[in-house]
UniProtKB/TrEMBL annotation:
This is peptidylprolyl isomerase. The keyword Iron does not apply. Keywords: Isomerase, Rotamase, Signal. It is an enzyme of class 5 (isomerase). GO terms for molecular function: isomerase activity. Residues 1-20 form the signal peptide. Pfam families: Pro_isomerase. Its EC number is 5.2.1.8.
Length: 203
């Protein structure tokens, strides 16, 4: 299954939002309690530890943890890396046949209150109801990936808390000048960086 990250050649300027008006007393929405789940990705280039925000993004976190608990990320890879702005993006996921759970809806940043900032992990998608296992980590803020109006954007659901240097090493790894289709051409890691093991971390 092809999963994409669409990046426009030129991003439209985003108007500053109007100042928020205080909500009447008694109807303030409760802020979700921190409920973080740690996951370690052991890769060929080192260890990345993620803190997944189950409190704010329960659907997306549950989906990712299902792949972790089934050990379906084990032996898979980060297969894509490219520069973006002052940083870049690395992408990985399950690409072996037969190891895909039913797709989930995109749990948008408008719903979760999260944002696609530097060191965020987010799920890739090809439109509504197409989120499977592909995920990406960004090393720079990308507000264009947040939901805006009819644009569902990409579901941020956690952050890198250890191993930022490993993410940078993957981003700097060599890519094939010829592999990849469309916007992905020239962004495919060669060789791909293997995810040796993905597992929950206690605490």
């Amino acid at each position: 299954m092809k999963t994409r990250i669409v990046i426009a050649a030129c991003l439209a300027a985003i108007a500053a939002p109007a100042p928020a008006q205080p909500a009447p007393m008694g109807i303030l929405k409760p802020v979700p309690r921190d409920d973080l789940v740690k996951v370690a990705l052991e890769t060929d280039k080192g260890r990345i530890v993620l803190a997944l925000d189950r409190g704010r993004a329960p659907l997306t976190t549950a989906n990712f943890l299902a792949y972790v608990d089934k050990h379906w990320f084990d032996g898979e890879a980060f297969y894509r890396a490219f520069q973006y702005g002052s940083g870049g993006i690395i992408q990985g996921g399950v690409r072996s046949g037969g190891k895909q759970l039913p797709p989930i809806e995109v749990e948008t940043t408008a719903k979760t209150g999260l944002s696609n900032k530097a060191w965020t992990i987010a799920m890739a998608n090809a439109g509504p109801g197409t989120t499977h296992s592909d995920f990406f980590i960004m090393t720079t803020d990308i507000p264009a990936f947040d939901a805006k109006g009819a644009d569902i954007g990409f579901a941020a659901f956690g952050r890198v808390i250890e191993g930022q240097e490993v993410v940078k090493a993957i981003l700097a790894a060599p890519v094939s000048p010829d592999k990849g289709e469309g916007s992905m051409k020239g962004q495919m890691l060669e060789p791909a960086v293997k995810i040796v093991k993905a597992e929950r971390v206690p605490g």
